[in-house]
Write a structure and sequence with these properties.
CATH topology: Rossmann fold
Number of strands: 7
Helix content: 40-55%
Mean pLDDT: 96
Number of helices: 8
Distance between the termini: 26 Å
Bound molecules: NADPH dihydro-nicotinamide-adenine-dinucleotide phosphate
Order of helices and strands: EHEHEHEHEHHEHHE
Radius of gyration: 17 Å
Length: 244
C-alpha cells in the first residue's frame, strides 16, 4: 500500500528548473509542503512556489549553494524553522559541462564532483539525524545513465553520478532498520536546459526515440517517496538506452 505523503516536508535541491521543478510540483500535488532550493534562478524558483500554492500546500524558497557546507547547514536550519523537520530529501542539483576526454582540467573535475556528489553527501548528512530521531525518512538521489554506460557528457560527470550510487547504497544499508529508505534514479535523456536538442542522439541512443520529460522523472520520485519497501535501488528511466 502506498504511504500517504500528505503533510510530509520535502526539500528538493535545484528545484528552480528542469527535473527539480517538476519534482517539487509533483510532491506538492501528492500532499507535501516543499522547500525549493535554488542558486541563481530566483524568478523561476518563485514561479515554482506560486504553482505549489495552487495545490494548497506550503512552499518556501531557499537560496543556497549546496556545494558549501555553511550554506547547506543554513539551508536545512531555515527549512526546519519555517516548514518543520525534513521527511524527504531529493538530491537533485547538478551540473553537466560537456568536455572532451583530453581537456578536462582538475578544476572542472572538482567542480562537477563537488556539485553533483559532495552536495548530496552534505545535504544528506544534515537531514539524516532528524530522520533517525523520527524513524522515518526518504533519501532520493539523481544519478544518471552515465553511471552505467559512461553517457555523453564525459568522465567527470560519469564518475560523479556513479559516486552517487555508492553513497546511496551505503545510506540504504546503514539506515534500513530505522524507517529510512535511500534510492537513486538514473535518467537519460530528459528534456531540460541541461540537454541540447539533438535528433541524432535521440534516434541512435534511445530506443523509444524521444527524450524523457521532467514530469516522468517526478512521477518516479513520488513512487519512491511513497513506498517503504524499496531501498538501495536504482530506478532506470532512460527510454530503453540501458537495460538491467
Ligand atoms: P537543469 O540544468 O535543468 O537544472 C539544474 C538545477 O540545479 C537548477 O535548478 C540549478 O539552480 C541547480 N543547481 C546547480 N548548481 C547548484 C548549486 N551549487 N546549488 C544549488 N542549486 C544548484 O538540470 P536537470 O533538471 O536536467 O537535472 C537535474 C538533475 O538530474 C541533475 O543532477 C542531473 O545531473 C540529473 N540528470 C539529468 C538528466 C537529463 O537528461 N536532464 C539525465 C541524468 C541525470 P539555479 O538555476 O537556480 O542555479
Amino acid at each position: 500500500m502506498a504511504e500517504n505523503l500528505s503533510g510530509k516536508i520535502a526539500l528538493v535541491t535545484g528545484a528552480s528548473r528542469g527535473i527539480g521543478r517538476a519534482t517539487a510540483l509533483a510532491l506538492a500535488e501528492s500532499g507535501c509542503d516543499v522547500a525549493i532550493n535554488y542558486l541563481h534562478s530566483s524568478d523561476e524558483a518563485a514561479a515554482v512556489a506560486e504553482s505549489i500554492a495552487i495545490f494548497g500546500r506550503r512552499a518556501i524558497l531557499v537560496r543556497a549553494d549546496v556545494t558549501r557546507e555553511d550554506e547547506v547547514l543554513r539551508l536545512v536550519q531555515d527549512v526546519e524553522a519555517r516548514l518543520g523537520p525534513i521527511d524527504l530529501l531529493v538530491n537533485n542539483a547538478g551540473v553537466n559541462p560537456v568536455t572532451s576526454l583530453e581537456s578536462i582540467t582538475l578544476s572542472e573535475w572538482n567542480e562537477v564532483l563537488t556539485t553533483n556528489l559532495t552536495s548530496s553527501f552534505l545535504v544528506s548528512q544534515a537531514v539524516i539525524p532528524g530522520m533517525r530521531a523520527r524513524k522515518w525518512g526518504r533519501l532520493i538521489m539523481l544519478s544518471s545513465v552515465a553511471a552505467q554506460t559512461g553517457g555523453v557528457i564525459g568522465p567527470h560527470y560519469a564518475a560523479s553520478k556513479a559516486g552517487i550510487l555508492g553513497l546511496m547504497h551505503s545510506y540504504a544499508n546503514l539506515l534500513a532498520k530505522e524507517g529510512i529508505t535511500a534510492n537513486a534514479i538514473a535518467p537519460a535523456l530528459i528534456e531540460t536546459d541541461m540537454i541540447w536538442n539533438n535528433d541524432k542522439i535521440k534516434s541512435t541512443l534511445i530506443p523509444i526515440g524521444r527524450f524523457g520529460q521532467p514530469e516522468e522523472v517526478a512521477q518516479a520520485v513520488v513512487m519512491l517517496a511513497s513506498n517503504g519497501y524499496i531501498t538501495g535501488q536504482t530506478l532506470n528511466l532512460n527510454g530503453g538506452w540501458y537495460m538491467s
